[in-house]
Amino acid sequence: MQGAGNTRVAGRLAGVVLGMLALSFAAVPFYDWFCRVTGYGGATTTAAAPAGPALAETVTVRFDANVAPGFEASFRPLQRTVEAPIGESILVFYEFANPTDRTIAGTASFNVAPYSTGAYFAKMACFCFELQTLGPGERVEMPVSFFVDPAMLEDREAKGVRAITLSYTMYAAEPSAEATGGVPPIAAAALGDDGAVQN
Known about the structure:
CATH architecture of the largest domain: Sandwich
CATH class of the largest domain: Mainly Beta
Strand order of the largest sheet: 1-7-9-5-3
Order of helices and strands: HEEEEEEEEEEH
Radius of gyration: 23 Å
Strand content: 25-35%
């Protein structure tokens, strides 16, 4: 009888663990959806194009870039600020460079401050959350296209804001097998140029 009781307890614990695992996977897309809908945490919205003409009123948009600790990479905005007419589409670029002698890869996350403007900062094109892979010494310029929605001027908290910061952080990621010649990235790091294992 004791063995049957232990089996039931083990089964329940396994069910709890599997349930928690499923919830952890569901939490990421749910939180992302929640932030995009509400603008919570500086999450932005997406749009194909501005809905109407640009206004004469402008907002200063500042661009910030950070590299996660321990990641050997260069990442910076090519423009520090832009004076953006509200409702007008703007195109800017960030540069991601590999100063090392090996293939690296990264993905960038972002936020907008103040948080109250997130729901009105509409991105039309962005490199965020896309895997960027660079060979030794390579660099790439990545576009960000956005506009500030005129509806911001009707928001009680955001209507007085005239400076917005778009900030990205670049995190290290595993290069794809294609980028390392079909060899798994960890194995590729252990091989020399001639394909021999390095000691």
